[in-house]
Amino acid sequence: MIKLIERAYNNKNRIAVKSEGYSYTYKTLLNKSESIAVELLAGKRDLNEQRITFLVNPSFQYVTIQWGIWRAGGIAVPLCIKHPLESIKYVLEDTDASILIYSKEYKDLIEPLFNNTNIRFIRAESFSNIFGLLPEVDIKRRAMIIYTSGTTGLPKGVVSTHKNIEAQISSLISFWGWNQSDHILNVLPMHHVHGIINVLSCALWSGACCEFLPKFNPEEIFKLFKKQEINVFMAVPTIYFKLIAYWNDLKKTEQEEIFLILKKFRLMVSGSAALPLSLHEQWEKISNHVLLERYGMTEMGMAISNPYNGKRRPGFIGQPLGNVSVRLVDENNNLVKVGEPGEIQVKGENVFNEYWNKPEATKEAFTLDGWFKTGDIAVLNNGSYKILGRNSVDIIKSGGYKISALEIEEVLRQHVNIKDCAVIGIPDEEWGEIIGVSLVLNTKEISIDNLKSWLIEKLPGYKIPKKYIIQTDLPRNTMGKVTKNELKKLFSVNIL
């Protein structure tokens, strides 16, 4: 049996999930996920790694569907609830999904797909309470595909086995001191490793409680904090920025009340993007916590973390987790000296299995001796790693998302009035980076508002550029490649 699910039998009467005003025990979670698994099997003995996509809000329903897919022997493919139909279609086609489970909120969005007879559509609310035999699922089986943007432009499906997931969870359980009495608030997207592994799966592995807040709202978050049940919180820098802004507008008596409550928390973590020093300092002021920064990727879960007990250094990501090997190398894969910058490479059971149906991309992601090439540059300083940046300017980190500039460029070039373009990340205190684009036009002018409306049909909101400039040509080097670092300098003037 999958160990994450097997452990739930030891905590049957404990609260596993709080969602939409209800509390659900581990026993309820086990029963409901079994019913879903039986219905997904539809008389078969085993789904044998069929790809099962699901489009549901972060909730108890989400967890039961995820576990139901796993218990039936399928591969869980969570879809982003903010993606347009085109992005959803891409995942369905890329994975050759056999089933799409959707909740009522998304019926209108996916209705155009209903004439696709290759896919079985199941309304999430329609699952009944039935029980039956389930297959034995080996931990070496593929368990999940999460889509991540890469330097090739189109999103790649990161395939993790149950063994990979167990390794990712167990390393964090040990390093961050997870225990049964923990109660975490989950405000993160549930198609990313941060929300799925670091928050939900670690809580359920520990016999703890995971509470969902499907839509971010600073006022609601502080209301939940005031109940004094939550003692662990994890978020991206953008969320901390908005919570600080809300706190600053409160009366002094309310600020003091919140400070005393937050001070009692066991752990607070920030990740998915670099945390500005100013946010570090402001959050410590309102909570008495030095946020724990860590480093990870969809391809490997977490690999490096500041200590749970011990000094945390703002701007540093810490030390390797247990059973995770890390090295820094130069462009020739030679180890660099301590204090010199190098690419982070990782090896361990936490590292993903493959990119779905992309053998060449998978091969390129690893060295000949099996190290995963992260593409991030870091330096080792007094025993802690510090991220210096990426070896590619084509990945933008904004609000916890890793966004491919090349993917956005490909979409923009489809517009009839755009001859060429280049997309970059612009440093921003709130978002980490915001997306900027330089446009070369086929016409004299363009309406930016109309362009944004056009993009909404093509891309999720977080991938739509916020800053625009118009140029007669893009800056290039002697090889004809756009010099994006030069382009960044132009965004201080002539921004539309």
From TrEMBL:
Domain AMP-dependent synthetase/ligase: 6-356
InterPro entries the UniProt entry points to: AMP-bd_C, AMP-bd_C_sf, AMP-binding_CS, AMP-dep_synth/lig_dom, ANL_N_sf
Residue ranges of domain AMP-binding enzyme C-terminal in the record: 407-481
PANTHER family: ACYL-COA SYNTHETASE, ACYL-COA SYNTHETASE FAMILY MEMBER 3
Protein family per UniProt: Belongs to the ATP-dependent AMP-binding enzyme family.
Protein name: Acyl-CoA synthetase
Species in which this protein is naturally found: Mariniflexile jejuense
